[in-house]
Amino acid sequence: MCYSAGFYRCYRCHTHVKAHKLYPILFEDIKILIDDVLKDKEALRNALVKLI
Asked: Three-state DSSP class for 7?
C-alpha cells in the first residue's frame, strides 16, 4: 500500500481506500494477531528463543 492525499492505494489491485476507513480494518487485524499470540504464549516464547 502507498499513501497519497488521504488515500491508500493497493499495489496489487490498485484499489483506493480513504485512510479513515482503512484504520479500523487494520486495527481489527492487529487485535486478532495479538489475541492469537496471547493464546499460545509458549509457542511464541519458543519461536523467540530460536531466534536468539
From this structure: strand
3-state secondary structure of 1: coil
* pTM for this model (two decimals): 0.50
- Summarize the confidence of residues 24-50 as an average pLDDT: 82
Which sign, positive or negative, has the C-alpha torsion 14, 2, 11, 31?
Answer: negative
The answer to whether residue 28 scores a pLDDT higher than 80 is yes
CB burial of 4-34 (b: ≥16 within 10 Å; e: otherwise) equals eeeebeeeeeeeeeeeeeeeeeeeeeeeeee
Domain positions in the chain are 20-52
∠ CA 32-29-11, nearest 5°, is 150
